[in-house]
Amino acid sequence: MRSPSITGVGEAKLFFSFVNLGDLRPGFLRYGVELIHLAGNLLLTGSLTNLLIAESGNPRSEKADGAVRRVNSNGVIATLAGGLDFPIGLTVAPNGNVYVALGNVQQLMAIAPNGAQTVVAGNSNGSACDQSAHPNCGDGGPALLASLSLPDSASSETLVFAADNRGVFLPDYRYGHVRFTNLTGAGAVVAGTQINPLQINTVVGSGLESPYDGLLATNAVLNEPTGVAVDPAGNLFIADTRSNRLRFVNRGAQPVTLFITTPSAVTVQPGQIVTLKL
């Protein structure tokens, strides 16, 4: 089956065409779809049968015209959620919820499979965290009262983040931390940090002046992180963008050795963070 081409116009001026949703090679044009300022986030979900697109909208517009779009296995594109204020990244949880980071209102939104929208993190102030006034940006408290620090329409950055069945791992851009939002009704321990229900806290990063590799992840410093991925064991891979580092956090109870039999081999103790040498 041939799937659609996606033609970005205006700000982005991007063009993509796929043979099918599981094969990201240039393929045959079926039809064109106009997108406004593609955020750079294309996410395949559901055993590679759906394509999710974060469409930021016009960065020069005063109205919220961003959207999350979905292309199904039949090549049909539809808007999952519209009227969003500059979405700059998305991920999908095991329960089917789509989480989207909204840069211009500094919030994290959940979109249920039925389309219902709920803000799950970030207060209603609409501005990034001011650490001179709020040094910890709301860590240790309710996620809906916390301040986030996400790229907005004045930035060229996008975010890649991850979700599991308990909550969302979010790289908090200029705050220099990775934070976890617990969306369950029970407490969660992440990288040695206790996070109560519906609260947010830092699980990686300290704001100190050294990378602090080889110590607990909460003692590390990150420099404008823009991506987080979780492996099947729950360990974290972090794009520490301004430091030009790929960081790894062992969230298990046993040491983990990466790149065995190679010059880049490294053993990471439970709860610790290291920089990977690729």
Overall 3D shape: globular
Beta strand %:
35-45%
Distance between the termini: 37 Å
Low-pLDDT segments, ≥5 res: 1-38
Would you count the extended β strands for me? 24
Overall structural class, as computed from helix and strand content, comes to mainly beta
What oligomeric state best describes the polypeptide chains here? single chain
Number of helices: 0
What's the overall average pLDDT, rounded? 79
Helix share, percent: under 10%
Give the strand line-up of the largest sheet: 12-18-15-14-13
Topology:
Layout: E1 5-9, E2 15-17, E3 34-36, E4 38-45, E5 50-55, E6 66-71, E7 77-84, E8 87-92, E9 98-102, E10 107-111, E11 117-121, E12 141-142, E13 162-163, E14 167-172, E15 177-182, E16 188-190, E17 193-195, E18 199-204, E19 227-230, E20 236-240, E21 245-249, E22 256-258, E23 266-268, E24 273-275
What do you see in this structure?
By secondary structure, this protein is an all-beta fold. Helix content is 0%, strand content 40%. The chain contains no helices and 24 strands. The strands form 7 sheets. Strands 12-18-15-14-13 form a 5-stranded antiparallel beta sheet, with no helix packed on it. A 4-stranded antiparallel beta sheet has the order 4-5-6-7, with no helix packed on it. A 4-stranded antiparallel beta sheet has the order 8-9-10-11, with no helix packed on it. The protein is globular, with a radius of gyration of 19 Å.
Descriptive keywords:
single chain, 278 residues, mainly beta, 24 strands, 0% helix, 40% strand
